[in-house]
Amino acid sequence: MMVKYEGNDIILEDIDCLNLDLTLDCGQAFRWERQSDGSWSGVVKGVFLNILQCGNRYILKNTSKKALDTVWLKYFDFDKDYAQICNTLKQDELLASTVDEYYGIRVLNQDSWEALCSFVISQQNNIKRIKGIINRLCREYGEEVCEGFYSFPSAQRLSELRVDDFEALGMGYRAKYLERLSKDVACGRIDLKKIKALSLEDARKELLNIFGVGIKVADCALLFGFGFYDAFPIDVWMKRVMEFYPNGLPECFNGIGGIAQQYLFHWARNNL
DNA sequence: GTCCAGGCATGCA
DNA sequence: TGCATGCATGGA
Predict the structure, then answer these.
(1) Is the C-beta atom of A217 closer than 7 angstroms to strand B?
(2) Which residues of chain A between 225 and 264 are close to nucleic strand B, CB under 7 A?
(3) Using one digit for the tens of pLDDT, what is the confidence trace for A76-130?
(4) What is the pTM of this model?
(5) A23 near A104, Cβ under 8 Å?
(6) Mutual orientation of helices A215-225 and A112-122 as an angle, nearest 10°?
(7) Cβ–Cβ < 8 Å for A78, A15
(8) Cβ within 7 Å of strand C: which of A 170-189?
(9) What is the pLDDT of residues A187-219, one digit of tens each?
(10) Which of A143, A187, A192, A202 has the maximum number of C-beta atoms within 10 A of its C-beta?
């Protein structure tokens, strides 16, 4: 990767395998908004970004080296060798064509608190509605970082709310899950940093103890928010995909199953 | 009107 | 341990 600084903008070049349109709108993150010029705007860890892709050139507008180093390098996982990962995954017959067709999907390194809340909300829900609920949550209880763009509210802030407040955002029966989760994280009964340091197996056990978190939500949180690239969430779409793997998942998925999953999920939603 | 969406908690066997 | 059922909401 090459980094250039032009005024307040930062230009990144020579990045392999990052298609912003696919990555920011494939159901792993729910808060990025596509602008009329084709760029994407969003807030991560309280930091705003507008980013435009022109081929293999990425323009980060009006940002800083500090933001790049502390937030965006990790979020987009620029250190990971995706070319190599994609080659490995293409040993699988189904992924051989799928990876080419949707080349450039990356698994984002999201904030664990935001990811956990997001996927609790996601259960038995569709992506459009999930986005609406999360946006209302941020607008009501987050802080405005840039005009019209809000941070994801902290557990501390959400712990002050009552179940009715969550219901008013349209969360339905998931309101009670968010209410308890916020209070448990705010008071320290659930320690997300500690969970992040555990093994995949132990982290999964911890998440499964949370009210409103089952296997699917736990695996999504582990993959998208806790850095476990081997987590393999199975939702209604992936259940359909699993029929293509009657003998179990191939060996080439080992350690990177979650990335394989993201390509298969996208393929399933477009083809099944 | 019915069915479905990045499912889970609960009760029961 | 495994299975059936209820659950909020809005779009198709």
Answers:
(1) yes
(2) 233-238, 261-262
(3) 999 999 999 999 999 999 999 999 999 999 999 999 999 999 999 999 999 999 9
(4) 0.97
(5) yes
(6) 150
(7) yes
(8) 170, 172-173
(9) 999 999 999 999 999 999 999 999 999 999 999
(10) A192
